[in-house]
Amino acid sequence: AMQRVFESVSVVAPSEATLLIEGATGTGKDLLAKVIHSASPRAEKPLVKVNCAAIPDNLLESEMFGYVKGAFTGAERDKPGRFQAADGGTIFLDEIGDLPLSLQAKLLRVLEDKEFYPLGSPRTVKVNVRIVSAANRNLEKLVGNGLFREDLFYRLNVFRIRLPDLKDRRTDLPILIDHILRRLCITRNVRSPEISEKVMELLLNYPYPGNVRELENILEHALIICQEDKILPTHLPEYLQVRSPAG
Known about the structure:
The protein is of the alpha/beta class. About 40% of the residues lie in helices and about 15% in strands. The chain starts with a helix and ends in a 6-residue tail after the last helix.
């Protein structure tokens, strides 16, 4: 599954195509967006991320599109938004399924005309950006429920990449565990400990509802607790230890 993802990336990254990345939380959608930007002709220009779920609805429009002086109380100067910050580069719209309907029409205009009105401005601003979006919710279902514009979905869905859950890529687990552990040890400036057979068995058989991000958290937890040269089951988070009667 990951090999297919990498093959897709090598084809789509050099293009200007609008891209939709789908996958559950923690599968690495933001990392994939960085890879695509770095392999594109826009690599030397900014990659700007907007998490549509993390910014309150009443602030999202001004964050994305900016505002002009006097647009609202407290707007004492012009403030460019994320789209202007990404001009010439790539904008990554994470959790696009959480974008309010009121802003979806404005985003559609950016996709179609490469221009938008900053909040409170009578004049449009033109930008040259590539849009990469990501969703952990099923956008087609949201369209069917009237929560996401169908025309916007089709404009975002020019090229789609689906990131598999970690439980569906079990053969990658030993490689990922080794890579993440080495990276964490380099960051902490400590020697990489050995992983006991029991721990490896637990790690290889856990379903990882939080995907790669959860695996990183588990290994970081183990490194903090472990004071020896070997990671044992007692160094793992408690919820993993109880999965094994011998743990």
